[in-house]
Amino acid sequence: MGGDYAPDIVVAGVDRTLVKYPNVRFLLFGDQAKLQPLLAQYPKVAEVSEVVHTDQAVAMSDKPSEAVRRGRKTSMWMTVDAVRQGNADAAVSAGNTGALMAMAKVQLKTMPGISRPAIAGLWPTTRGESIVLDLGANLECDEKQLVDFAILGESFARVELGLEKPTVGLLNIGEEELKGHDEIREAARILRENVPEMNFIGFVEGNDIGTGKADVVVADGFSGNIALKTAEGTARQFADYLRSALGRTIWGRLGAFIAQGAFKALKMKMDPRSANGGVFLGLNGLVVKSHGGTDAIGFASALEVAIDMASSDFAARAHERLAALAFHEAERPVGEMPTPGTDDIQVAEL
Amino acid sequence: MGGDYAPDIVVAGVDRTLVKYPNVRFLLFGDQAKLQPLLAQYPKVAEVSEVVHTDQAVAMSDKPSEAVRRGRKTSMWMTVDAVRQGNADAAVSAGNTGALMAMAKVQLKTMPGISRPAIAGLWPTTRGESIVLDLGANLECDEKQLVDFAILGESFARVELGLEKPTVGLLNIGEEELKGHDEIREAARILRENVPEMNFIGFVEGNDIGTGKADVVVADGFSGNIALKTAEGTARQFADYLRSALGRTIWGRLGAFIAQGAFKALKMKMDPRSANGGVFLGLNGLVVKSHGGTDAIGFASALEVAIDMASSDFAARAHERLAALAFHEAERPVGEMPTPGTDDIQVAEL
After folding, report:
1. Subunit contact A230:B235, Cβ cutoff 8 A
2. What is the SS3 assignment for A206-227?
3. CA gap A122, B189 in Å, rounded
């Protein structure tokens, strides 16, 4: 078990999840000596879990290609392998993102027609929540990958946001049709012409993500990651300003005390833990990456996304949509293997 | 005169600027019939200004290449021309960003060794302010352009932030040396090996911009624009949440009333108008773009950046630094002309 605070937050996260999902069963891969005392603390988790022992774990600093080559006895590999073998419906890990992506690709392979998977996440907006992808698995994307991601993101939004016809936008530096580089304009053309059943709304800009202008925002992994982390940083900056502005005077402190209920509500609304969980889309099997530095509440959010997805028709729907796009069959390698060397540099740590 | 609220905000902005800079003189290019009544309202502005009449203006929807070809009598062209002819030390406009960039390139040409200019802006951080560039003039950048932008940004930071040795970082999706695409890793290598006098701190991530980890953050124009607009959107989102959380209960409203001084301070701190002004760096002459939708306060910020830069040794310093980089002289076209067609799609509206 990886992640900064594993296995404690994993077991405590499962415990939280059981309140809403009492019928889910868990396979816990990790060091029995560490897990047993935790399970004694959480008897409800012990009841629905089976421990599969391994004392090997992927480190946060391991290179993805190395992890794949030498890490076949690690808890991460065994977790993904359980999905491959059909023993689990989803794998959830708070460990090394690049290693998890590399192992997921090697073991589960990509869906027919998909060359590389994307990482998708929930983004809190003033209207509710949107899906943003790719958050860091693919630094550069051609038009076909962007189209794939739009289709995968749309299917994800159907499950996670419960929308029959989610709106889909491409992240760009302007809304006009002529803006942006070739790949993004070509992706827009393909979506408009070849995927007429999609509710594609064209280009959206960085400031449109937070307003929820599109239910699904599609970007290459570099821009998507920059947007995600810039938003996280700005939210933290705003919270710091607010705290220091209120703390500076006695009236500020008094006002903050009186309005403490409102500030608690604001804190919950802005809590990044409630939107935790990067879902790997485009694989023959479900893998969810939790933030490495999260706590039990955050890990439980990642588990809930995994459970929602596992109990949905996501895969069937995505398959159907992808198959309808003729160019996939002709031009794409099926289940492409990751290339060591490039994989070591391609995936951003969430 | 362009911009959404010109010429009113221009004249009112000059009036504000005169408080801090009473000795600056202004050339106002625009429709005399509209400007005269405004100048009657602002006698101090009338005293230090000369109106150069034209009734032609570039529209916000004009294509840059079209504006260059047919807009020789527009206020925007004439403003940039005044810099070219040495009649003005800087041009400031709230008009169409793409047209302004195209006109600036055609008239002023790029500095020796620079193939394309960048747009740089001030970014409020928890520590103070940082410089971020490129904000949208170059969708894709090779390693040499990123190195150029680092040098230009460093010189800008010396003037605008008053730092002798500003720290410079490259925006990336991870801090490790192996992260990011080829161009960005190669730019990091060049900065480390060939620009030893620079205080280059390596890669920074999106969440590092707001903490002020680097005084100068260098990015390609696509990522830089996405980061800028995502931060603007997130700040607005946070302000909306705060307002609605406080407005929902009587205690929230009471607390907000008591702490109103603190909220006013917060509002000023987050005010995007205080950091208004995208500076075009890399040209033989100074051009500053104000946000199109700003007011007099925002336009005054853009004017102040222009005045600071015009009264500094920015150009000399940047020249010296660029000349020290041997590869420029050998491999770069000098004063490259913009290519109509590509220019129409390359510049983001700020």
Report:
1. no
2. HHHHCCCCCCEEECCHHHHHHH
3. 35
Nearest Cα residue in chain B from A242: B266
Q: Residue B249's CB: how many other CB atoms inside 10 A? A: 14
Q: Do B109 and B280 touch, CB atoms closer than 8 A?
A: no
How many angstroms separate the CA atoms of A229 and A252, rounded? 30
pLDDT of residue A343 exceeding 80? no
Give bridge partners of residue A52 from the DSSP assignment. Answer: A29
Confidence of residue B341 (pLDDT cuts 50, 70, 90): very low
Q: Could you tell me if A215 lies within 8 Å of chain B, comparing CB atoms?
A: no
| Secondary structure string (H, E, C) spanning chain B | CCCCCCCHHHHHHHHHHHHHCCCCCEEEEECHHHHHHHHHHCHHHHHHEEEEECCECCCCCCCHHHHHHHCCCEHHHHHHHHHHCCCCCCEEECCCHHHHHHHHHHHHCECCCCCCCEEEEEEECCCCEEEEECCCCCCCCCHHHHHHHHHHHHHHHHHHCCCCCCEEEEECCCCCCCCCCHHHHHHHHHHHHHCCCCEEEEEECHHHHCCCCCCEEECCHHHHHHHHHHHHHHHHHHHHHHHHHHHCCHHHHHHHHHCHHHHHHHHHHHCHHHHCCEEEECECCCEEECCCCCCHHHHHHHHHHHHHHHCCCHHHHHHHHHHHCHHHHHHCCCCCCCCCCCHHHHCCCC
Report the mean per-residue pLDDT for chain A: 87
On whether the CB atoms of residues A134 and A219 are closer than 8 A, the answer is yes
Pick A229's closest partner by Cβ from B207, B235, B240: B207
pTM of the model: 0.88
Nearest CB to B223; choose among A226, A240, A252:
A226
Is the pLDDT higher at A277 or at A272? A277
Token digits of residue A11: 């077991």
Helix residue spans in A8-125 (DSSP H) = 8-20, 32-41, 43-48, 64-70, 75-84, 97-108
Q: What is the pLDDT of residues B90-119, one digit of tens each?
A: 999 999 999 999 999 999 999 988 888 999
The CA distance from A226 to B209, in Å, is: 10
Which residues in chain B are closer than 8 Å to A174, comparing Cβ atoms?
A: 348-349
Position B263 pLDDT exceeds 90: no
Nearest to A183 by CA among A212, A221, A228: A221
Hey, are the CB atoms on A173 and B233 less than 8 Å from each other?
A: no
Gap between the Cα atoms of A184 and A171, Å rounded: 9
- Looking at residue B341, its amino acid is G
Segment 137-196 of chain A within 8 Å of chain B by CB: 139-140, 171, 173-174, 178-181
What is the pairing mode between strands B118-124 and B129-133? antiparallel
* Residue A336 predicted with pLDDT over 80: no
The Cα–Cα gap between A133 and A141 comes to 12
Q: In the structure, what pLDDT confidence band is assigned to residue A272 with cuts at 50, 70 and 90?
A: low
Which residue is listed with tokens 């479900």? A286
| Among B226, B237, B258, beta carbon nearest to A223 | B226
